[in-house]
Amino acid sequence: MDFGGLIRSIDWNWLETTLARVLAVLLCLTVHETCHGLAAYALGDPTARDRRRLSLNPLRHIDWLGLGMMLVVGFGWAKPVPVDPRYFKKPKQGMALTALAGPVSNLLLALLAMFLSREIYLHLPYSSGGALAFEFLLYTLAPLSIGLGLFNLLPIPPLDGSKVLGAFLPDRTYFGLMRYERYGMLLLLALSWFGVTGDLISGSILGVYRFFFELFF
Question: For residues 54 and 194, what is the distance between their CA atoms, to the nearest angstrom?
């Protein structure tokens, strides 16, 4: 068997791009879910800690179907961090802050990625292969993390935005909205299929990315 020919036939650019995207998605989802758990814990709910979800180990958070969807169509999910609002002094507000922690963490992660990209660009102009690979990962990570953060701010159950919105709604309206949470994923899948969420989010991602870019470059 001609192993040399086999190796030469591999599309290394495609492999590098795919690997960077997988690593970026894993990091985005892991940070997002871990920060949900940390916020809940800070507000008095130990559920995520007790179930070992305050971890940066992606295997504790990944839903494999959600990961595949994220890689293929840019819309996916992880295993939801368990939260018990009965531990919160103000359940609706506690849920809103816990929910908001995920998207905020993604925006901060994107900022960190772009800051590190600038530092590499300024101080390692003739980067080695390892530094270039890391820089490529950062360039992949930033828009993905922004996209995940903005997508989760949509006020559609079960996304985080619905729980943030709930903090401003009367109890009756809020709990009525949460009754339809199980159907929200079907709605999101339908909107994604028809390209509605993509059109809505893509322009926002570009706007936030440009804003962050101007901060650092």
Answer: 36
Report residue 78: phi and psi, to 5°: -115, 180
93: left (phi over 0), alpha (psi -120 to 50) or beta: alpha
Residue 169, classed as helix, strand or coil, is: coil
Over residues 91-114, the mean pLDDT reads 96
pLDDT for 157 = 84
Is 135 an active-site residue? Answer: no
Q: Is 83 in contact with 101 (CB distance < 8 Å)? A: no
- Which candidate in 16, 33, 181, 214 is catalytic? 33
Count the residues in the chain. Answer: 217
> Residue 28, Cα to own-chain centre: how many angstroms?
4
- Biggest CA–CA distance in the chain, Å, is 70
Distance, in Å, from the CA atom of 107 to the CA atom of 141, rounded to the nearest integer, reads: 11
The helix/strand/coil state of 78 is strand
pTM for the structure as a whole: 0.85
Higher pLDDT, 106 or 5: 106
Overall average pLDDT of the 151-169 stretch: 89
Q: What is the pLDDT of residue 128?
A: 64
**102: pLDDT strictly greater than 90:** yes
Amino acid at 181: E
- Are the C-beta atoms of 102 and 32 separated by less than 8 Å? yes
